[in-house]
Amino acid sequence: MSSTSTLVKTQLLVGGQWRDASGGAVYEDFNPANGGKIADVADASREDVDAAVAAARRAFDGRWPTMAASRRAKIIYKLAQLIAERANEIALMEVRDNGKTISTAKGELGAIVDCFEFYAGATTKNYGETMPPPLPTYLANTVREPVGVVGAIVPWNFPLLLASWKVAPALATGCTIVLKPSSVTPLSAIELGKIALEAGVPEGVLNVVTGANNPVGAWMVEHPGIDKIAFTGSTATGKNVAAVAAKTLKRVTLELGGKSPAVVFDDADLRAAIAGALYGVYYNAGQCCEARTRILVQASIFDEFVAQFTEKAARLRVGNPEDASTQIGAITLRDQFEKIKEYCEIGVSEGAKRLIGGAAPELDDALASGMFWSPTAFEAENTHRIACEEVFGPVATFVRFKDESEAIALANASEYGLAASVWSNNLGRANRVARAIRSGSVAINTPYAVFPGVPFGGYKQSGYGRELGMETMRLYTETKSVLTYIGEKPMDPFGV
User: Which among 24, 341, 390, 459 has most CB atoms closer than 10 A?
Assistant: First the structure.
């Protein structure tokens, strides 16, 4: 395995300036694939968070929200161009910081560029409405104004991708931002801060604060100077974010956990469904909120489907994330590795049938200190914990169903509702089932469910609000009604 990048010491971006955390506090950042240290990262204090929020407020009170939308659009598009120019460099940074495969990281960089380009275009289309006047002597219209200072809290599984989902629409609407990446994957957010300044984003519009030993995210949620929190993470943490944010009446967008189904009917293209189901489970080592890990298969094809799926899954290449041929990289966190192991043990103890995997693979010495998990699959009941709780790893569960009504019932028998797939050559049935599934997105005959311009978010315990679409622009703005009197005679309501 190639060596990690040269050891770096990072800083916080506050008000357009790079600075150490107060007191010079740092923490260590490691490569999960080989255990090597890659950075000393600034560990922000409450004082640093206050400074970042103050900088964002000054920028919001300045010219950014009132800048011509076309000018903001050009800056956001320039940001997209600079990311594209450095895509290979940033992808490798993401691999070493997160453990994902290089092919996955490069694919994400393309999506990140697309996201910023989409919202560069959306900047000039943040329309209000003209309404029928309440009286003939009035004009009535609405305008969309930025909500204010946004606290963007991003998880570790897609560090820069999920940052782009928040930063891009916030910039497009004229908001200012305090971005807090996960403590274990901070490097790409820091790089985004550098690129934003180079692209012409004014000082204080985007601030980046990192921290591991201090509760930076919690301080942001509490902070009275932040107007909106955009959070992606676990459902348990999301509930706490919503409760604390309510104390200051912050706007909140929550993209939370999932245990998404892939429903495979007996008339599906079997080859396509198996390939799609493999990707839906094992992409990003299963560390994916919309992973379709509950594979519901019609009884008449169940055995054939499972046999072909497991044979192909066993051939997936686990190992060095920097090798272009690797298909499953490292597990990012030690705690997450142990959680996956525990769930596999629980699955066996509850009577689920292990089909493949269920253990760490044997890899060469260069990866001995890394965290990897073999592609795993169980045949289970929908009530088994491994089938109904979010594992967040490369673990599939197969459940049989008899007919369409049972398939819908099983798909909806979950506290989550983030994503789903339906596989059938009967498009009437596929669309009927898609409408019946209580989920924020449903992909028919494809594993892909996330694209810029298509709203993404959850039902039920998977959160609320949407990302990626034009609808998202509404969530970063307030509606202002404007009433204009155009009558020829002055108004004199009291007649005095």
Answer: 390
